[in-house]
Design goal:
heterodimer; A: 165 residues; mainly beta; 6-stranded antiparallel beta sheet; 5-stranded antiparallel beta sheet; 2 helices; 11 strands; 45% strand; B: 91 residues; mainly alpha; flat; disordered N terminus
Chain lengths: 165, 91
C-alpha cells in the first residue's frame, strides 16, 4: 500500500488548516442536519466525523448561487483556501471531496452543485457506493472559495483532502 | 496535473498529528474530476470583490468570518507552540 500524505485534511471535527500566512484552508457548513436514530443522530455523526445533508431539505437546483441572497438560503458547505504563499511556483491543488450516499437505488442519487463566486463549476451527481470526487485547481495565485450546495438526495460529507503538488 | 500515479492507494494513511487521510476506495481513473483553471479563479475573485463592494450584509458576514478564522488560527498556532515547547523541555 502506498500512501501520499495530504497537505491538509479538513473534516467536521477538524475544519481548519493553518500552517503559515497565506497557506491555510477551512470549511464552514450551513444547514446541515441530524436525525433521532443511528447512524444519523448527532452522536453517531460526531463519532464518525460526518455532516448529514438530508434529502428532504435540499436547496433549489435552478437558482443562481452567485447571488448572496440565494446562497445563504441553501444548505451548503463552503471551502476557503489561501495558498498564495505558493504563488508563482507553478504549484497546483488537488482537492478530494469524500462522501457517502445513504441509500441505494431506487432512491435517487445525491446531487451537489459546485460553485465558485463567478458561477457553476459542476453539477455533480453522487452515486450510492461512490466515495469521492476530485477538483483540480490549476493556479494558486489567488485565494478562493468553493461552495458545495446540497440540492438532492441524502448524503454525508466526510471531508476534503488537499494535495499541493 | 498528473494525479493518476499517486491517487491509486486504498487505505488509511495515519499522519503524525493523528488527523490521517481518507480511505480512498477508488483510483483516479474512476473518479469524477472537476477542473478549475487560472482564468476561472480570477473571474471568481473579481466577482467576490464586486459582491463585497455592493452588499453590506455579505461584507459584514465576511469580516466576521475572517475574524473568527484568524482567532481560531492564532489559538491553534499558540497551542501547537505550547505543545512543541513542552516536548522540547521533556526531552
Amino acid at each position: 500500500m502506498s500512501c501520499l500524505e495530504a497537505t491538509f485534511t479538513l473534516t467536521p471535527r477538524s475544519p481548519l488548516y493553518s500552517k503559515a500566512p497565506h497557506e491555510s484552508a477551512y470549511i464552514t457548513a450551513f444547514g446541515v442536519d441530524f436525525q433521532c436514530f443511528s447512524p444519523l443522530d448527532f452522536s453517531s455523526l460526531y463519532a464518525t466525523n460526518r455532516f448529514l445533508f438530508d434529502g428532504e431539505f435540499p436547496g433549489t437546483p435552478g437558482l443562481d448561487y452567485t447571488k448572496y441572497d440565494n446562497l445563504t438560503k441553501a444548505p451548503a458547505l463552503w471551502f476557503t483556501g489561501d495558498f498564495t504563499a505558493y504563488a508563482g511556483t507553478q504549484k497546483q491543488l488537488a482537492l478530494i471531496c469524500g462522501f457517502d450516499v445513504l441509500s441505494p437505488p431506487p432512491a435517487a442519487p445525491a446531487r451537489v452543485l459546485v460553485y465558485s463566486d463567478a458561477g457553476l463549476l459542476s453539477d455533480q451527481t453522487l452515486l450510492y457506493g461512490d466515495s469521492q470526487f476530485l477538483i483540480e485547481i490549476d493556479s494558486l495565485n489567488l485565494p478562493f472559495t468553493l461552495y458545495f450546495i446540497h440540492v438532492a438526495g441524502t448524503w454525508l460529507f466526510r471531508g476534503l483532502s488537499g494535495y499541493v503538488v | 496535473l498528473d494525479v493518476g500515479k499517486w491517487l491509486t492507494f486504498d487505505g488509511i494513511c495515519p499522519l503524525p498529528d493523528g488527523r490521517g487521510s481518507f480511505l480512498w476506495s477508488k483510483g483516479v481513473e474512476a473518479m469524477p474530476i472537476i477542473r478549475v483553471n487560472a482564468k476561472q479563479l480570477e473571474e471568481a475573485n473579481k466577482a467576490r470583490a464586486a459582491a463585497l463592494l455592493k452588499n453590506e450584509q455579505l461584507r459584514a458576514h465576511e469580516e466576521q468570518r475572517q475574524r473568527f478564522v484568524l482567532e481560531a488560527m492564532a489559538t491553534k498556532l499558540k497551542s501547537e507552540h505550547i505543545a512543541a515547547d513542552g516536548k522540547e523541555q521533556s526531552l
